[in-house]
Amino acid sequence: MSTELNSGSVGGFGHMGKNDPYNDGHSGSGSSGGSGNGGGNGGNHSSSGSSSSNVEHTPWGDVIAGADGFNYMNGIKMTGENSQLAYVSSTRLVRVLNSLLDRSYMKPEPGEHNGVTGVPATSPSRQELADNALTAAQTNAKTAADNVAKANAAINQAQTRLNTAKSKIPGLEANVTTKQQASDKATARAHELGHFLNDMGGPGRYQALQAGYQADVAQNELNSAKKALTNGQAEIAAAQKALDDAQKALPVATSNKQNADAAVASAAEMKDAITTATAFFESVSKKFGERSARLAQELAAQARSAKIRSVPEAVALFDKYKGSAVNKLNAADKAAIANAFKSLDQAAMAKQLAAYSKLFGRFNAFADLADLSNAVYKGLTTNDWKDAFNKLESMAVSKVAGELITVAFAAAGAPLGIVGFGMVMMLSGALFANENVLSAINKSLGL
Hints:
Elements: E1 2-4, H1 46-49, E2 55-58, E3 61-65, E4 71-73, E5 76-77, E6 83-87, E7 92-97, H2 98-101, H3 126-192, H4 203-288, H5 290-303, H6 311-321, H7 325-328, H8 331-342, H9 346-360, H10 368-382, H11 386-395, H12 401-412, H13 418-429, H14 435-444
Antiparallel strand pairs: 1-7, 2-3, 3-4, 4-5, 6-7
Helix pairs in contact: 3-4, 4-5, 4-9, 5-12, 5-14, 6-11, 8-10, 9-12, 10-11, 12-13, 13-14
């Protein structure tokens, strides 16, 4: 299910070319890099390294090998069209659904390392991805709006065509009546003089021949009039069909426009969320140093679609990596960290939660933060962290790590010292992050 590369340092997501069994043979050679559609830079994670004969765990979710020879994620068969190869270490690739990679914006910026594994960052940057997504959505929305305008124009044109065709029918019918009367009169005259046709050389023969000719002309004119009426009726039918088709196309075009407008709004919200997250990383970098920001980015990358651990597992890892700094905190420091959850500006917190939830996942209830702060205070004062982890676990709606990062990043915006910030990252990370990151938090954030 994964692919090992012999090349050196690589970065980005892309297709493997002829070495990729999903490739249709039209892409390039086996070496890859490039941009792809973005994605979380998972690094050399233990969570992705674990695999069995049928399942491989990746930062984006489990990859299951199907009996048909294809790999599946979230029940979807992965093909060359709906998936691509993504790096989980500097030499390993795994096939991942584009839909998961497309929203994996939380990765280091181009040219930067993720601060834990040393895997080079990917390009384009998350801000560029968001900008490109919004631009593409706006382009699609403009096309959809143009299509609505074209559909309305087609209705107007078809209606005008139908009205014109209908307006001609009375005249065409009147012309048929006139030509029918003329034909009947000419035919009657030809019949009246018909007996003179055998009068060779007599004066009546010429009149009979002339009457027969006039009858033929009148009949031809009648046929032409009838044909014109038939064509006019056919034009009504064609114009009506064109109008019906145009009227059917309008709701489709309108629905497409509504969807395109919604996509623009969603892309704009995502861009705002990316801007918020980027500002958060910049703030962390200024307050606690660049490596702290890298660790926050790494947690975000791992949180994409990662399932959370059980509480006992999380508690064990937390105890292993939280270090001795907590024991060295005095009562005032512990109270300050616990009260940081309570001191958050309600409006600002709601805005941050809304922004981060678009990147990482929903959260249960804003009121849960008060319970979480009490649980954190209990952990700080009694060294019993089980309640804190139970609370964090319950706050994750679908047991996906991204929902924990939503809360953790919002809480980390409070006026915490570096130890407090480290505690927030460690508490959330213990539920899903691999031990490389937990160890790095321990060493880098004063724990």
